[in-house]
Amino acid sequence: MASERIDYAEVGLMAGLEVHQQLLTRRKLFCKCPAGLYTQKHDGEILRHMRPTLSELGEYDGTALMEFKTKKNIIYLLHKSNVCTYEMDDTPPFLMNPEALDVAVEQCLMLGCDIVDEVHVARKQYLDGSIPTGFQRTAIVGVNGKLPFAGRTLGIVQVSVEEDSCREVRDRGHLIVWRTDRLGMPLIETVTAPDLRTPDEVAEAILLIGRVCRTTRHVRVGIGASRQDVNVSVRGGRRVEIKGVPKAGWARRLVHGEAIRQVNLLRLQKELRGRGFAKAEDLKLEHRDVTRLLTQSGYSHFRAEAWEAFVQQEKRRPGFELGEGRFCVRAVKLPGLAGTLCWPTQPYHDFSHELAGRVRVIAGLDQQPILVSSERWPDYADSRRELGRLRKHLHCAEGDALVLVWGPEADTITAAQEIGIRYQAALDGVPNETRQPFPDGSTDFERILPGPDRMYPDTDHPPVRMTRDRVERLRVALPPPPWEREARWEAAGVPRQTVRYLIRRGGAELVDLVVRRAEADVLRAGRFFGERWKALRRRGISVDKIEPERWVELFAVLRERPVLWEAQDAIARALAERPERTLQETLSDLGLDRPAGDWRSELGRVLADLPPSRAKAAPGAWPRRAMARVMPGLRGRVPGREVWEAVRAFEPRAAAQGVKP
Amino acid sequence: MNQPAKDPLKGYRGQARQALERFGVRVWSEVRLTNDAGSVFEGVILPRSETFDDLHVVVKMRNGYNTGVHVERIRAIQELGYKEAVYKIPEREFPFNAGLPKVTLLGTGGTIASRLDYRTGAVIPAFTPGELYGAVPELADICNLTTRKLFGVFSENMSKDQYIPLAQAIGEEIAAGADGIVIGHGTDTMGHTAAILSFMVQHSPVPIVLVGSQRSSDRPSSDAALNLIHAVRSAAYGDIAEVMISMFGPTSDRYGLLHRGTRCRKMHSSYRSTFRTVGDIPLCMVSRDRFDYLTRDYLPRDKSRKVHIDAVYDDRVTILYYYPGMKPDLVDALVEKGYKGIVIAGTGLGHVNKPLYPALKRAIQQGVHVVMAVQTLWGYAQMYVYDTGRDLLDIGIVPLDNMLPETALMKLCWVLGHTQDHAEVMRMMRTPVSHEITEREPHNGYLILQGGLPETEEFITSHWK
Known about the structure:
The complex is a heterodimer.
Chain A: H1 8-11, E1 14-22, E2 44-48, H2 62-69, E3 73-78, H3 98-110, E4 114-115, E5 118-119, E6 121-125, E7 135-149, E8 152-163, E9 167-172, E10 175-179, E11 186-192, H4 199-215, E12 226-233, E13 240-245, H5 248-274, E14 286-289, H6 304-313, E15 327-334, H7 351-363, E16 372-373, H8 383-393, E17 401-408, H9 409-427, E18 433-437, E19 443-448, E20 455-457, E21 464-465, H10 468-476, H11 482-491, H12 496-505, H13 508-518, H14 522-538, H15 548-560, H16 568-577, H17 583-589, H18 599-607, H19 621-634, H20 640-650
Parallel strand pairs in A: 3-10, 13-18
Antiparallel strand pairs in A: 1-11, 1-12, 2-3, 4-7, 5-21, 6-7, 6-20, 7-8, 8-11, 9-10, 12-13, 14-15, 15-17, 16-17, 18-19
Chain B: H1 14-23, E1 29-35, E2 40-45, E3 56-61, E4 66-70, E5 74-82, E6 102-107, E7 113-117, E8 122-126, H2 129-135, E9 144-149, H3 160-175, E10 180-184, H4 190-200, E11 201-202, E12 208-211, H5 224-237, E13 243-248, E14 256-260, E15 264-266, E16 275-277, E17 284-286, E18 291-293, E19 308-309, E20 317-321, H6 329-336, E21 341-346, H7 357-365, E22 369-374, H8 387-395, E23 398-399, H9 405-416, H10 422-430, H11 454-462
Parallel strand pairs in B: 6-9, 6-10, 10-12, 12-13, 20-21, 21-22, 22-23
Antiparallel strand pairs in B: 1-2, 1-5, 2-3, 3-4, 7-8, 11-19, 13-14, 14-17, 15-16, 17-18
């Protein structure tokens, strides 16, 4: 039963974040290629493989071994405009981009970190091919940070500067294809302490860190510019990393779903123990080639010719996308494990989904539905009888379950072994995994969670000294932290949503600037830059191009002559369109530099020939028509309300009834 | 290569050393270090490279990252434990399979295989068959491997003292019945070693293959394992009984190339596909499961052939890379210092400027053997074409046709190990031993694809590099 509601405190939910934020630099981190230049085409390809390096005990690290077993052919797509031989791993790194390091230090200071004295570049192994070297170059820049969060403190364990990885183009069978344009762009990874206790807190913390990072304006924004890994565990469970959550909003369902998954896996562990499965040896899985039993099967996936058609259709090449050996259907007998395949895990999924994830990733068998089990046997002609025959063939007893996989023979053997490994992990509760998130809130297996064993020093790059002078120079130039602005602006009445927009999307510096330099009213400035700007941009006015100094001048004039506020759109448009004109010239161009004079008598003359509204006209129609006629000449010179009242006085009596200002 | 730390504060000097002494901790101490901002670094104190400053203490933290803490910011270091790193790779016995060929791997110091010590980040070389089996288990399916470590030097430190014992060791291994020899070597001077071995080891009955890597084997993307597999296969099963270099063909993980020892050169400082045959084509493409011979013009494997080891070497030879404006006193200085042989890497068809002529003449008169190769690498020294070349011929400078400058250097060292007689020296220099001079240059022997051209772009877009 997929219990959808749980008490997070009761199950001991703990979550922490690893927030990845691209830095806004002109060049990449370890070479001179331009950063942020993405391409959809390529003009070169290379083929590589990854081989795990032996770890301390002469054994392969768990993740590495898993990724080696997958036997992936890795293709990198190259484009000359954004990669050089460094990204191809055919040239050692150049010295770390000092601009990126400065921005990273700024970020660390915003996050309240202690900046390290000597930055050491490390290699973090990834054998999935996402980086052609097989490791990511990464270096800790700050440690021990703190952020005010929901009335308490959110600890920042460390911030590192690192190179971004490739973008996945496709992953089919044994072939994975990566685009290299993003590779090597500088980013920072902010690791929080596991201080978050609910899905809502996780989402809030993502937004908070996002606001802190964006405050400096030296980070990239837009799709993919910030991604977070969310680490989740419940009491008795283990840390699972949900990788690459693109939006804070997704985090709620993902964290909730993972909490439920872990609770259910712990229940399964108890169930298995109850059935007498305590250690790996108690699981006596067997597997057998059953291809010949199924040549006439009503389930097409079990037949070789259907497999051939699939291979043809997908254009899978032998020894490339395709694994080794002839087509094979393999039955895996799970003695005493009946009922575990449909054991609930995350919402809408059961334990067979856990198995399918491993089979897909590690064995490279990815034809949906990847596997079928005796507990969700497909419905086709003679299907029950066929299942019966298979059970008999494998000597299945009542309490035994059966899983079938199909594909190239060698891969089906790997699949059978992986199913065994996943059951072994189930005896231990929740395995450490990296899981891939989906928009529906579910996750799927991506890889075994790597440990510190995959880190080692980068012998290609010397340590970089970080002097206190450099740190202090960067600290002096920092903008105020977002919570400080939030407190100040919210106290002045700026709505929270507007405040956050200003910090996330820009405008915050302008608010501070005009308040400081032109003594502008905080609420007015906040609303102008946080709300009015959006509207102006939507109308195609490039407000971003207006020099900050112009805004200071404008807000100074506005303080003297508040009536000008009513002409803000026209002024903004004029400033944006003719940036070379001074503010005075612009106001003069718009006729806003002259006093209104005797506008009331003028009004009578202009409105004298405005015909009265027809009897059936909506109330207030005449004054609105009148305003439309007179305001263009008066807006920004006379307050609209005064004009409105004056206009009403001119309204022909008969039509005036029931009109509200 | 790392040796066990003798100094308990290995690599630390000055202030950093004093700080560690003051806090009573040493390299490999597991510590809890607190700085002036109250930040806590828990982990292992690592040795420090002697070339780094004396102001920082390096801690490998629990999460695997390293960081340097400035000595002036350290407030406390508490020792939690101590565990010295043991630089030893676990061995697994290399399986013996009676049906497989015998291959001997001779080690000169390059790291072919290695493992990482994640606790310390050290790279530990793997060399014995057992160690190699742990790192590249595929080798056991190819051959019965024995290994012999001759020296432990970086390839730039190879010279006479290594070349002679190396050639002798090859002779011994062949006599002992090896079906093929593999030599692990750093890539920087692999071409030089391949050239000298081509002269010192003649009429080999079996393949002699030099191999190395352009990406060290502590990296998942390393070319080392595949290069080693290709080299061992070539030694065990290949048909070419010459001195060869086996390294990546393209930068993609596809196939290796077997290059003839006298015609091969490292052409890029870091690319995987750095080795190229110059002035000719490579001998063979080798992959995990096949050999594609590109020529029939080679010495085939023949176990009955008797190898001739001729390991002599006179290192009083230099290479003079000519540049415009070179001064004659450079030549005089070489003569004065006792050099017996000069290989000029001349411009174009084999030229140097006129002011050098008298100095070169003096050198030759004093018994120095002067030969001419071309710095263009491709093409022949054809000194009869222009007056300047003819003048040099008159002085007594002997052209070496299309012998590569580095090959010419190695050959002159070898020849001068035999004789100082000028006529004999020049006869030997001009008589090819192993295709170091070829009579014909095929038109596919000179191919440097020029990027940017439509036909090149079409090619590199449609082929894996």
